[in-house]
Amino acid sequence: MDAYVTLIQLLDSTIRLSVPLLFACLAGLYSERSGIFDIGLEGKMLAGAFAAGTAAYLTDSAMAGLLAAVLVSVLLGLVHGFASITHRGNQIVSGVAINFIAAGTTVILGQAWFRQGGRTPSLPAAARFGDLQLPGAEALRDVPVIGYIYSELISGHSILVYLAFLMVPFTWWVLQRTRFGLRLRAVGENPAAVDTAGISVPWLRYRAVICCGILCGLAGSYLAQAQGAGFVKDMTAGKGYIALAALIFAKWRPVNAMFACLLFGFLDALAIRMQGHPLPLIGEVPVQFMQALPYVLTVVLLAGFIGKAIPPRAGGVPYVKER
Amino acid sequence: MARAAIELIGIDKRFGLVHANRDINLAIERGTIHGIIGENGAGKSTLMSILYGFYQADRGEIRVNGKKVAIIDPNAAIAAGIGMVHQHFMLVENFTVLENIMLGVEGAPLLSKGIAKVRATLRRLEEEYGLEVDPDALIEDLPLGLQQRVEILKALYRGADILILDEPTGVLTPAEADHLFRILRKLKEQGKTIVLITHKLREIKAVTDNVSVMRQGEIVATLKTKDASVEELAELMVGRRVLLRVDKGAAKPGEVKLAVENLTVRDNRGCVVVENVSFNVRAGEIVGIAGVAGNGQSELIEAIAGIRRAVSGKVTLDGRPVDVTGRANPAELRQRGLAHVPEDRHHMGLVLPFEESENAILGYHDDPRYLKGPFLDIEAIRADAQKKIAQYDIRPADARLKTANFSGGNQQKIVLAREIERDPSVLIVAQPTRGVDVGAIEFIHRRIIEMRDAGKAVLLVSVELDEIRSLSDRILVMFAGRIAGECGPEASEGEIGLLMAGVEKKAAAE
């Protein structure tokens, strides 16, 4: 029974840790399926988290924090769009620039405004997204096996967790069943086909980076207002890059993306749990090793196990009308 | 002319210094097939892009069915009933036929209704015009002929009354081209107006009612096709008399210079695309390899030229083996007298941003003639380039001009001059006249025959059947990675066409 409880707790933290990855991964999916590579997920998430922490602290409202996160992240997304769509700049350079801007600006503004070493003051409960108890969670707690799964694993997360997982089927539906999705997929593969069909390539791609911005904002808001209680310097800690790895691993598909993010979330949860617990035979594993695992895994899996990941064909290439 | 479907009045367009269209006046009769021919760079494609709303004319107006319309973008063209089948298909390769057809005209924010409508319309179009295609097939799985049909269906689905086809037969087998022409005639019978842009005179004669000839941005003549001879049209296009048939004497084949035995090659995805191919080329003969693009020709010549490693097989050059499965490399083969004019001059033959003289020595830059100690001898290189420019009549005659600024024909001459002037013993020429205009074609063909007459072994690969037939002394036909058959230059187009389509000789006879 002890092992069972441990396992459920491990899975529970897996879910919590995969949420920011999932938001960011889906964000990247919208952008990259439209042909705009986005290495700036990390920066948008970080700036979003800072905005969420600041706005929620100043207004005492969780919603205001979330909206501020989305707004800031969308604005950064538009900067990326302006550089790479309107001015056909290099998408990687633009994305990296956004990461640097976010990393620097958040700390400087945080220190200037709050003087707590770059962090924002800790948020009261009202300014955070608290855990929701699903109906019947308490009542079912004692039902053997299933009751515990329901009350511990499925119930008791913040609204953003449920939103993240709902975004998965929603994104699939958007891509496969809507006009916007059809055009989005088309523009990432062959923008010339979209252009000759009388659809504006730039406007379509701008809408994609806006979607990306919204989702990165949600990821940031989750970090500052649900997982944590305020913004902390560098709180994304490379999650944007892991999300990119997950996106490649998922071959740019939403349902695969969810599983990839859960896998990386699981490794993360495992790493935390293993800290200070020596393994039989091996002894204590350095925490850095566990933290490196997602990246190692990505390389190994991409190299041999899941076959070739084929990115959207027009990805990274600015669209120029041919003469 | 009340029956004109399209009237272009005084259309004028410049791109910087290039005057692409000069005061074009053209009327296209309703219910006819109207051909537009001209050399590359004559302004055909620009004119059609203006008609389809890709560019705006600087001056002039467009009338559709007698009414003046402003075609500001492709949407406006579609609304005016104009559809276009582009030379490079505008299809999303990993989409289904259905998704491609509905892209841009989905009808509603959700797709389900649109899908039903596309299916119904496809069935109707299939009945009316015999345009069969599986709506759920992925584009990348379809042969090029069918992909083109999807492009036509796209235009028809959007309600096009006037259909513009830009060089539609470049990627088709002769049989597929004939099928296309049948479809076009059928569309004409149903009252559609068709504009066919091509540089192939044969197609103009085969299918059009009227023909307009463009030269240097101007329409130099509009004629009834039945009143115009092929020679006359060629002369109008080029502006001087052109020899359409290549004059050549009989071949005097000597010893075997290039022998290929059981060569097997894989493509980048690891599929075997050349399987057990054997043939040889003798001194003083041209061996032509015919076939629809993508049947292994590219990989075959890459393997012979040392660019791609073969899986198995033997290649002998001048009696000495070439390590095609191992260490062969293009530099070594060049030294041994193998010259290669690659099929895609933009990707493999030239560095477009370089100046002409730099491209003229590409791959031969370590020749002591071009070196002064460890440095390049720029003076010598330019002088040498200038000499070749004169010999090959490359225009503009400026060795310091950026290569991208030369026309396709002149770029090809730069590559040809570089490879031929090395006096190789074996010359591999792939698609020597792709995207090259009639005047330059004549020149290039003459050079290739001169090489043969000088006792060189020439291996010619081309998807242009006419070119293969007029130049080759022996013709090999490739299909699905194998040599499907061999014939002499006297073989009929139909005979070669069947081999190209994979019909074996025996089966064809039955």
TrEMBL record, chain A:
<dbReference type="GO" id="GO:0022857">
    <property type="term" value="F:transmembrane transporter activity"/>
</dbReference>
<feature type="transmembrane region" description="Helical">
    <location>
        <begin position="64"/>
        <end position="85"/>
    </location>
</feature>
<protein>
    <submittedName>
        <fullName>Nucleoside ABC transporter membrane protein</fullName>
    </submittedName>
</protein>
<keyword id="KW-1003">Cell membrane</keyword>
<feature type="transmembrane region" description="Helical">
    <location>
        <begin position="92"/>
        <end position="114"/>
    </location>
</feature>
<dbReference type="GO" id="GO:0005886">
    <property type="term" value="C:plasma membrane"/>
</dbReference>
<keyword id="KW-1133">Transmembrane helix</keyword>
<feature type="transmembrane region" description="Helical">
    <location>
        <begin position="255"/>
        <end position="272"/>
    </location>
</feature>
<keyword id="KW-0472">Membrane</keyword>
<feature type="transmembrane region" description="Helical">
    <location>
        <begin position="292"/>
        <end position="311"/>
    </location>
</feature>
<dbReference type="Pfam" id="PF02653">
    <property type="entry name" value="BPD_transp_2"/>
</dbReference>
<feature type="transmembrane region" description="Helical">
    <location>
        <begin position="6"/>
        <end position="29"/>
    </location>
</feature>
<dbReference type="InterPro" id="IPR001851">
    <property type="entry name" value="ABC_transp_permease"/>
</dbReference>
<keyword id="KW-0812">Transmembrane</keyword>
<feature type="transmembrane region" description="Helical">
    <location>
        <begin position="154"/>
        <end position="175"/>
    </location>
</feature>
Automatic annotation (TrEMBL), chain B:
<keyword id="KW-0677">Repeat</keyword>
<protein>
    <submittedName>
        <fullName>Nucleoside ABC transporter ATP-binding protein</fullName>
    </submittedName>
</protein>
<keyword id="KW-1278">Translocase</keyword>
<dbReference type="GO" id="GO:0005886">
    <property type="term" value="C:plasma membrane"/>
</dbReference>
<keyword id="KW-0067">ATP-binding</keyword>
<dbReference type="GO" id="GO:0016887">
    <property type="term" value="F:ATP hydrolysis activity"/>
</dbReference>
<dbReference type="InterPro" id="IPR017871">
    <property type="entry name" value="ABC_transporter-like_CS"/>
</dbReference>
<dbReference type="InterPro" id="IPR003439">
    <property type="entry name" value="ABC_transporter-like_ATP-bd"/>
</dbReference>
<keyword id="KW-0813">Transport</keyword>
<keyword id="KW-1003">Cell membrane</keyword>
<dbReference type="Pfam" id="PF00005">
    <property type="entry name" value="ABC_tran"/>
</dbReference>
<dbReference type="GO" id="GO:0005524">
    <property type="term" value="F:ATP binding"/>
</dbReference>
<dbReference type="InterPro" id="IPR050107">
    <property type="entry name" value="ABC_carbohydrate_import_ATPase"/>
</dbReference>
<keyword id="KW-0547">Nucleotide-binding</keyword>
<dbReference type="InterPro" id="IPR003593">
    <property type="entry name" value="AAA+_ATPase"/>
</dbReference>
<dbReference type="InterPro" id="IPR027417">
    <property type="entry name" value="P-loop_NTPase"/>
</dbReference>
<feature type="domain" description="ABC transporter">
    <location>
        <begin position="258"/>
        <end position="505"/>
    </location>
</feature>
<comment type="similarity">
    <text>Belongs to the ABC transporter superfamily.</text>
</comment>
<keyword id="KW-0472">Membrane</keyword>
<feature type="domain" description="ABC transporter">
    <location>
        <begin position="6"/>
        <end position="241"/>
    </location>
</feature>
<keyword id="KW-0762">Sugar transport</keyword>
